[in-house]
Input
Amino acid sequence: MHIHSTTSETPVQLERSELHPALGDSLMEAMSFLNEVMDRHPRAISFAPGAPFAGFFEQFDVPACLARYSRYLAEDKGMSQDQIRKRLYQYGPSKGIINDLLAQSLRIDEGIQVPPEAVVVTAGCQEALLLAIRALCSSPRDRLAVINPCFVGIAGAARVLDIDVVAIEESASGIDWFGLVNACRSARAQGKRIRALYVAPDFSNPSGNLLDLASRRRLLALAEAEDFLLLEDNAYAFTAGAAAALPSLKALDRNGRVIYLGTCAKTCLPGVRIGYAVADQLVTGGRQGVRLLADELAALKSMVTVNTAPICQAIVGGMLLEHGGSLAALSAGKAALYRNNLALLLEALDNHVGPLNGTGMVSWNTPQGGFFVRMRLPVEADAALLEYCAAEYGVLWTPMSSFHLNGGGRNELRLSCSYLTPDAIDEGIRRFAYFLRDPRVRDGQRQPVAAEKAEA
Amino acid sequence: MHIHSTTSETPVQLERSELHPALGDSLMEAMSFLNEVMDRHPRAISFAPGAPFAGFFEQFDVPACLARYSRYLAEDKGMSQDQIRKRLYQYGPSKGIINDLLAQSLRIDEGIQVPPEAVVVTAGCQEALLLAIRALCSSPRDRLAVINPCFVGIAGAARVLDIDVVAIEESASGIDWFGLVNACRSARAQGKRIRALYVAPDFSNPSGNLLDLASRRRLLALAEAEDFLLLEDNAYAFTAGAAAALPSLKALDRNGRVIYLGTCAKTCLPGVRIGYAVADQLVTGGRQGVRLLADELAALKSMVTVNTAPICQAIVGGMLLEHGGSLAALSAGKAALYRNNLALLLEALDNHVGPLNGTGMVSWNTPQGGFFVRMRLPVEADAALLEYCAAEYGVLWTPMSSFHLNGGGRNELRLSCSYLTPDAIDEGIRRFAYFLRDPRVRDGQRQPVAAEKAEA
Output
């Protein structure tokens, strides 16, 4: 990067080693390198980003959404134009302004019965994650467990807050149950505790894994037995479609073990940055009396971002109202497109890469929903190989090692289907199949790749 | 609060003592109590909130702002309609999308020369504060100094991040210089360090204090001599008006000692939640090579809120473009209104409370800008007295003790002029003058107030 001249004459230089350790972290470096690779190859077909399909943006109409929400405030809430303007344009409550509509959608779409007061609207789901782990992890004694590999956002938030993370491995049945119980007991033996487990039961990022109903019940029972909370990230559940969807952990929860974390980025629009946490647990003790955990999250939020932009909340509110209050109805068309894209991606893999499958050379999973397919190569799927694939074959993907906390996944990559048109998916996988037959990949020649890495 | 029924049959109860200690903090309790008092007295004339005057909202036009920014992207940046939609509606860079416009406004309005790359757009100034102290305070060794009394947002962010705070007292000349130097040296003697000082040199919240030019230069020299950074909160500087404004610390900074923290809440609109940090310091060491501190703040932001809602950034961008790129031009009308309100507030105090001034009974300061006047009473200005004032006289204010870190300010209150019409200011102070003549205040009768508190 070119650094322009500034006002400084003899500028102070800060040592990276004296900044917060999260900043020297390999995770942060990996993400920043990935962005650079994408910037360098803007014309490559990219299976890398998990961002929503941009074609949906054409139908989107900010003024119409704001007008719809304003009409609701006037007609259903009896608010004057002055009051409506204040609601949209002034500071607002830390907990949010569309909590009633989100609680309604949870009831309609998922059978989750919570009062609006148990919902906190956040600046994207990322802030909801951060607030939840900040509230729960009160001292170095408290550890956060995550299913490994895992979403970078949760690992990153934990590092920003200096919270210790324990990795529980994914398994064929979803979770390494023995590893999880063991982590709880071994923490206890050290005078520590697993305070919460972060889990995305529906087509997780990055693996596309789905927890079946029995696993969901088993996880809830284990949370009760070992006394930890579940942070349920629900980002990709909507892609299953209403008919095929399994009940969320929160819908099955009878003991208040689940904090549900939602995002409107995929169902509504990324550009509004609206997420939410559902935290109906009771908090007791202290001078404040009995409150909901949502109140505590809102108190923390007041010190992180104060409140979530009410204009953005109003846009989401308008979209919800336009679809009978249902996020599922609102996102049904999107879910259908993503299911179709995923089927096309898996079909293209069968068509173009099929002959290589099962030879032990490459293999991949076949999720029934979500944005992601996981693939194993005979060589290390690292930044150097990505750079080579982008330059020589015009295709981008994400190395899985970025999502692994214990140095695993080195031979794995993630393919995302969300961002591309059907034509681009087929053409991209056609190119990708040539890449997989390249001697660097096919023969597992590590030497040239390693050399390339040293130069990068 | 009434807690509705939930899905829980035997719900887990969380102990407040096992949540993060920031949540048991007296600061959080005080803010939450204050909100409750205001909710209970919606018809009282409120000198409590520092929120902007709602009359400005009438002129505000979201679609026009978005259209103006979109035209800029099309005409000046040559972007297609597809590219513009992606810019506004898709995920975007953690650093922001209107960095060029904010850098331009800093140049036009304040003579601050920084490249757009040194600006990070944040979810309100609160997030900018949080990111700055998180980046700088790398271990328990690092302490944050603040001018006491201070903005609750900075104290709160430090508590959320478990950062130790050192209070430096305000003085007649602005800052207790001896106390500041002493804090640096005493930290060093303990193997610790003052890493940064948070300061609002222009009409600070809550005191309305202004640092004169000599004090600004002295502070910069001291930061260099004692090797700490300055976090300059600029929220109220615009109220001075272009002619009377003193140069910001950042404009005077020749050694890269200042991280400048800006907010668009007061100059543009609270409802967009747009703030920004200017961090042009160079960071060296590690594997990433030389980068700007702004890059590190953006990396942290990716783990806190990912990116700031681009729709909200576009609204601010459109407002800036409509005013020649100048925040000062954009906010000139607002600044004039606030100056007028402050003059009216001080005049009303003279008219209605004047006879009490100088008797040793009450006293107040006379700031030349900002939103706030500080007043000292002969009795404790606590929550119980506030409740009494609201119930009996229909007037609200803010106890200053909430802003004091060392138990000080117990007899002080803050009056804000930003939220009210001229008529309400005069009527409110007229009522307030009666309150000041109430025996509870005039005679400093502590007993009944304490009894009231026990009941509250």
Notes: DSSP finds 17 helices and 16 strands in chain B. The two ends of chain B are 15 Å apart (CA to CA). Chain B touches chain A through 110 residues (CB under 8 Å). The first helix of chain B runs from residue 26 to 40.
